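In full, the data.
>
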Amino acid sequence: MAARRSRRAALGLCATVVLLDVAFCRAFVEDLDESFKENRKDDIWLVDFYAPWCGHCKKLEPIWNEVGLEMKSIGSPVKVGKMDATSYSSIASEFGVRGYPTIKLALIRPLPSQQMFEHVQKRHRVFFVYIGGESPLKEKYIDAASELIVYTYFFSASEEVVPEYVTLKEMPAVLVFKDETYFVYDEYEDGDLSSWINRERFQNYLTMDGFLLYELGDTGKLVTIAVIDEKNTSVEHTRLKSIIQEVARDYRDHFHRDFQFGHMDGNDYINTLLMDELTVPTVVVLNTSNQQYFLLDRQIKNAEDMVQFINNILDGTVEAQGGDSILQRLKRIVFDAKSTIVSIFKSSPLMGCFLFGLPLGVISIMCYGIYTADTDGGYIEERYEVSKSEVESQEQREESKDQQEVSSGGPLVPTVQEPKDILEKKKD
């Protein structure tokens, strides 16, 4: 009886633990209702649309609870929820639910009013808006949002919500709002929608660093950078920065498809990138897709001079330097090796001597051993040749001696010593 009671107590404890675990996981999956229409505007939602009678939905439930727990534990901004699609069929149809279970990621947040639109403008420096109803363009927009959601913000709105200063030639349309203006996606001029969004997700003028230049490499744009010393308040440093800002602001309609503008503090990173020593202040135009660059071939006095220089780059009259040829790659390998060695010796001379002195010492010992082994081999071979010559000379002397005996009439057959017993008999 006592064993049965302990077994029952153990089973009861296990059941309690399982129920608590299920309840704990469910706490991170929200049951959604009609209020989801408003709540989804401020957050990104991963939603499971299910039906109460669906067997597959019941099998998915414990897995979905674990998804909610995992999203919470890693600190993801994505919220996990589930909705009875049979009870809220209008919302389910809005998300295109046709079967159960269906999982949707609510990437695109609707902007229901102008006040909400203005709130988003104040909150985000760059964001994209789809305007219109259901269309193939919207499907492309959703695909682009699923790919680039970690980089920028995606919204949808009706034409009435858009500010009055926005003029649209046709509907539907995709717009990017940035730099206190907007640009409209044109499929014929801008190509693929995802590529256009990836190019336009940056502000027109930026403070550059190495990581940002790496990201801009995927845009295919030329990056115009004023390389300055921000601690230096001289006229030349501030003038170049102001000229680049003026070009980015006043000529953005002309250059925003092909150019990105900004400034960089110091020339250390640029020198490493170009494998050259640039004087500060200066202006350099980078093509991050093929590692080419353009340096100033004239004095820049104002924005018009800078615009002329950029136009000359576009028409090919300014010579491009660098690139990704085999020669440039070999030069890069040598430059990186040299930079690494120099940096090691600058930071820690003793460590540099150990890292490079030890291998050189081992190599020197190996070379010495190989050299001495070759010398010993030559000496043995030389001794062998000497011994061979001595044997040959000895044979020659014996032959000459035999010839002399023959010529003097001496016995040809050598004398044989008689046995000892015969010698004793002769004595007797």
Q: What stands out?
A: The chain has a mean pLDDT of 79. The radius of gyration is 44 Å. The first strand starts at residue 30 and ends at 31.
